Amino acid sequence: MAGIDEIRQQIHDALKGQDSDYIEVRIEEREASRIQYRGRELEDIGRSTSLGGNARALVKGGWGFVSFNELSGLREKVALAVKQARLVGRGRAGEFEKGEESKLSPVAPVVDVVAPKIKKDPGAVPLARKKGLLDEYNEIIWDTPKIQTSVIAYGDSRRSVIFANSEGSYIKQTKVDLSVRLMVIARQDGDVQQVALSMGSSDDFGFVEGLHQEVKEAAQRAVALLSAPQFKGGEYTVVLDPVLAGVFAHEAFGHLSESDFVYKNDRLKDIMVLGRRFGGKHLNIVDGAAIPGLRGSYKYDDEGVPATRTYLIKEGVLVGRLHSRQTAAKMGEEPTGNARALNYRHPPIVRMTNTLIEPQNVSFEEMIADIKEGVYVKNWYGGMTSMEMFTFSAGEAYMIRNGRVEELLRPVVLTGNVFTTLENIDAIGNDLEMNQGGGCGKGAQSPLPVSNGSPHIRIQKCLVGGR
After folding, report:
1. Same domain as 274, residue 128
2. 403 and 281 share one domain
3. By C-alpha distance, which of 345, 12, 389, 336 is closest to 170?
């Protein structure tokens, strides 16, 4: 990428004199490495670099968007985005009503350079070292009897983004991201069971180097599931570990808090009314990129809005939702810094960042002490949501009897209505953990780095499916 002063001048020249209500330009440079094994076979390995950008313009409520992979002719690319916006603004005005006035929630212009804080930079680690670690993990898996196949995928990236707009903002941010995904499948007499792990970091390759015991336990658990008893489905008291509880907060509730879902859906507007009670006073759900050191963290979003820490539910009451500048203006609320784009090929849309249930003061032992018969569920490897209904497959499940965690069970599925389930959370632990594995998908932009977390939580009258 050219020097920052040179690019700033290019963008300034490209924006000058354009006839538009608002224009922004993003320039992105990315370096990445990837390794994937399927079974014992090395399926993919390599490094890549990319350079590209986009221009987005707003005219009379209509957006124009142009992406490109070279910086030459930037003024012409911006002019094309303006032309598109003008055509849309005169037509159906994009997401909004025909001919509507362009509205963006006001944000003070920012000039800043944000460097990453890195403990151990994955970019400084040779690709051969990364492959060697995955080879070690693969050997651990295949030393375990009854393993049929496995998948190990590693990826890291360093992404530098320059953002500038017609209001005077000019921001350069650099962010590091890395992830490891592992799936182990065991088989015996036609029975197949699987276990999955997903981990990540925003600043430290070191976590990749110490996964030997976790990989071993995952392979052994896949085999143990082959002889685990079937579970009799029904309505139970259920305790969720921090990983599955965090996924519940993200998937079942967090997406309903993304404001572009709300204003486009009349039914959701009637449900997601600020001030409505959804749970007890012990329930607080938060999202925010201003929570430091996580995969969803940043200083400014992809519209140049400073990151926030936004309460969605506070003391059981719906008090906020997630916004871009445009949705905030549309709904008469404040922007929250949640406009995010997967890369330069996409415009920013409203996305979660780091979503969590805040801890309370209940220990795990206290949480299970009075459960005569219940289920303890951990981790996850699948699920779906449809409006307020959800279905999640737990990665692990154990019976709880008379206040003790007992035998491993075959996989179970949790199903229910998110709002009823929030009301039925009657205990929240003191042991908050953040899960940094996986990524979020929305609007053909996946996987976007996020994190989610929670303490252990207890849910009364939860529908659990087994055999």
Report:
1. no
2. yes
3. 12
* pLDDT tens column, 333-375: 999 999 999 999 999 999 999 999 999 999 999 999 999 999 9
For residue 279, give every residue at least 6 positions away whose Cβ sits within 8 Å of its Cβ, in sequence order, or none.
313, 316, 422, 423, 425
First to last CA, the chain: 56
Q: Report the domain count for the chain.
A: 2
Is residue 276 within 8 A of residue 318, CB to CB? The reply is yes
CA-derived radius of gyration, the chain: 24
Residue pLDDT, tens place only, 246-301 = 999 999 999 999 999 888 888 888 999 999 999 999 999 999 999 999 999 999 99
What tokens were used for 142? 């295949």
Instruction: State the residue for tokens 């390995």.
Output: 45
Together in a domain, 275 and 350: yes
Residues 189 and 245 in one domain: no
Helix (H, G, I), strand (E, B), or coil: what is residue 15?
helix
Model pTM?
0.94
Q: Which two tokens stand for residue 160?
A: 């530098």
